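Predict the 3D structure for this chain.
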Amino acid sequence: MNRIISFVIAAFAALSLHAQSLPSVKVEDAAGKSVNTLSMIDGETPFILTFWASWCRPCRMELAALEEAAPDWEGDFPLRIYAVSIDDSRSIADAKALAATSDWPVTVLFDTKERLAQAFGISSIPQVFIFDKDGKQVYTHVGYTPGSEKTLLKKLLKAK
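Done. Predicted structure below.
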């Protein structure tokens, strides 16, 4: 019985450690260039990482809300948001067109093979993560509710 309890505790500890650091995964930028996720860590400012898809209405609502809220955030510290599309080969063109025609204050990345999404265990979108300046996860939230961008700002300021 003690072995089972020890195994369960070790498994949860391993999962929580995995969820606390940004994994090293390659995704693509809008130009198709490979980008390692560890390049998001600058050692100076926290950042937001959000997963979205072109067919996900709440995702588009969240990104539009971030666009609207961005001017209020500027000045506290450099705002860095990475929006990772999980659109697959059937819908990636839609995602790229949507990103190209939007004014979202984000760096859009594409995870067509869902390697980064799998590393985080994403099962529902939108899902937002906040990382501190060293790439340690400090907050996560699934779904979008109008006004939740205010919570993101508070959490982002705490991560600074």
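The chain has one domain: 22-159.
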